[in-house]
Amino acid sequence: MNKERKLIIAGNWKMNKTVAEALDLAAGLKLELANVKEVDIVVCPPYTALSEVSKAILDSNIRLGAQNMSEHNVGAYTGEIAAVMLKEFSVRYVILGHSERRQYQQESDALIARKALAVHRAALKPIVCIGETLAEREAGQTEQVLSTQVRGSLAELDKEQMVETVVAYEPVWAIGTGKTASPAQAQEAHAFIRRVLAGMFDETVARKVRIQYGGSVKPANARELMSLPDVDGALVGGAALEARSFTDIIKNSI
Ligand code: PEP
Q1: What are the residues facing 234 on neighbouring strands?
Q2: Which among 12, 225, 228, 235 has the fewest CB atoms less than 10 Å away?
Q3: Whose CA is nearest to atom 4 of ligand 1?
Q4: Pairwise CA distance, residues 206 & 177, whole Å
Q5: What 8-state DSSP symbol labels residue 140?
Q6: 170: part of which helix (H) or strand (E)?
């Protein structure tokens, strides 16, 4: 597939996989994806499996991501994880502002913006998630919601940092529901996000930023979604939990 930006496909394992299960999955992916050079591949295990998965994918083309990170560097923040701790395991990417964290942990755009800056200061790359709910889409508020989230969640970044940031468009109504945005809906939202980025930063920055689609991506719909001009990869939940389906998503996207 001939793309303007290199595809980045990331698996968000969420709160799944013991260390043994994570190692099984990592071993399968390492084997199946060994020859893939066309796509940046990222896996985001739970914190408890980062150390072992990091060792398992050493010397492979698979990069490690975390699912969240503290905005603080060190100190009395019970239950939080700092950038320096993630770097010990060669983590390269950090998912921020996933809709589940926005919903269950009340994460705000302002907090996500501070976290994104902390991720960059540690020389890691954030994957910043945005997306509208079904109610917001049905009320015709999709563009307003996306614009607010893009402007709010990326507010602290400069142009150089923005270029090294991945945005994940994940319509909340498509996450884990089996409902996927239609190609037209996905392309429209991605193009809109890129226009907002051009307004916030400039055209050059907007053209360089990779925007992933997330929401029930599967082997069967990956090719069509990844072929859209403004879709530069995928953030995959359910289908990233098995080597076969995650591998097929990647191979079908090449
Ligand atoms: C996600 O949670 O980021 C996601 C896209 O999940 P799923 O692929 O299961 O819809």
Answers
A1: 9, 213
A2: 228
A3: 237
A4: 30
A5: T
A6: none
Nearest to 226 by CA among 254, 194, 190, 206: 254
**Termini Cα distance of the chain:** 5
The whole-angstrom separation of Cα 236 and Cα 215 is 7
Of the listed 71, 98, 100, 120, which one is catalytic? 98
Q: Which of 79, 38, 37 is nearest to 60 (CA)?
A: 37
Rounded to the nearest integer, the mean pLDDT of the chain is: 97
The reported pTM is 0.98
Binding site membership of 126 for ligand 1 (Cβ less than 6 Å) = no
Residue where the block lists tokens 């996000």:
193
pLDDT of 237 above 90: yes
Mean pLDDT for 108-132 is 98
- Residue 1: pLDDT band with limits 50, 70, 90: confident
Whether 98 is catalytic is yes
Q: How far is the centre of ligand 1, averaged over its atoms, from the C-alpha of 235 (Å)?
A: 7
Position 210: which residue type? R
| 169, 131 Cβ separation under 8 angstroms | yes
Compute the distance from residue 9 Cα to the ligand 1 centre, in Å.
12
Strand partners, 12: 44
